[in-house]
Amino acid sequence: MSLPAARKMSSTESVYLVEVVKGLVMTMTHIVKNLFDQDRFRTVEYPDVRKTMTDRYRGAHRLLLRPDGKIKCVACMCCPTICPAKCITIIAGEDPNDPAEKFPVEFDIDMLRCIFCGFCVEACPKDAIRMDTRIYEINAYTRQAMIHNKSYMVNLMDGIKPPAEEFYRLNPDSAPAGFTPDEPSATGSP
Ligand code: SF4
Ligand code: SF4
Fold it and tell me: Rounded to the nearest whole angstrom, what is the distance from the C-alpha of residue 107 to the centroid of ligand 1?
């Protein structure tokens, strides 16, 4: 298949200086407009200002607890099975008080591999895992610290990211769904 012929440039386009001047005029126009109309600024002055993500935004995962304080997850292995990135690792254990019940002794998600597809949330039959935190600050200094473990995902934001925690404390409307600074930390064990 032959490629379409290249469009022929007009005489003014072939003199690149004209196009350069046009570009500069456009840039200057936006600069002047922005100076007099601050609402036009799209830049979020992070970290002093944090963007509030929509409810549908897939942020950092959190693990939910039952009303009795036990972790909701029953280690059914649906989420690690469906995860296309194979980044969920669960070690299952039996509840000593009820051998019919299982729970995750360990529950790790390697956030460096996660592609935020949300399949784990969709697959969970127990509504035990959600990505509704709106947390997009998923960063660390080491690869190991990018593996979010059970404790981290249960006690989300609890003292692990102090600057963000302080911001959300002052701006509760922007706080992620899992952020409960005034409540004692839950252990998440059965
Ligand atoms: S969001 Fe997708 S890639 Fe990330 S842990 Fe869940 S299933 Fe795996
Ligand atoms: S989080 Fe949900 S899908 Fe994943 S192992 Fe636990 S109960 Fe199963």
Answer: 13
Ligand 2 binding pocket includes 129 (Cβ within 6 Å): yes
pLDDT in tens, 6-51: 778 787 777 788 889 999 999 999 989 888 887 777 778 887 777 8
Ligand 1 residue neighbourhood (C-beta within 6 Å): 83-85, 87-88, 109, 114-120
How far apart are alpha carbons 160 and 9 in whole angstroms? Answer: 58
Residue whose Cα lies nearest atom 4 of ligand 2: it is: 79
Q: What are phi and psi of 80, to 5 degrees?
A: -65, -25
Of the candidates 157, 91, 80, the one whose C-alpha atom is nearest the C-alpha of residue 113 is 80
Distances from the Cα of 75 to the Cα of 69, 162, 183, angstroms: 16, 31, 26
Residue ranges with strand state E in the chain: 62-63, 88-95, 98-110, 129-130, 147-148
| Per-residue tokens: 84 | 């296309």
The model's pTM is 0.70
Average pLDDT score over the chain: 83
Find the range with the poorest average confidence among 20-24, 147-151, 177-181, 186-190: 186-190
